[in-house]
Structure prediction request, 121 residues.
Amino acid sequence: MKFVNLMWLMKEFNYAGTKYADKILGQTLCAVRNLPVEDVEPEYQNEFCMLWNQILDSADRVLGSNAGLILPTIRTIYNTLHGGINDSPVNATHTLADHPHCIVHTHLRSNPHTTNQEPRN
Prediction:
């Protein structure tokens, strides 16, 4: 259930106003970024990976996206779900270009990642 709540927060925070970004977003996501996700059900991993890709894409396309705050904060979850592939230290000097898209077909169900994918509401 905590993992499902994390995904809801990711969606909501990506478009939250700037007054929420500094106070709520960082503190909340920092609190959940170390959730144990090794045994997450495949359907939730699929949803996480699709959402990760959407948030990463929104950084370039959507004015006001908080992707630059969200992705570095939860990168540890992405790394764990991907068995450490593309594993890199999480620090403030990374840009969004340092965060990979999930391209693992089984993580994306029947909807492989495309750069034209629109964020879900």
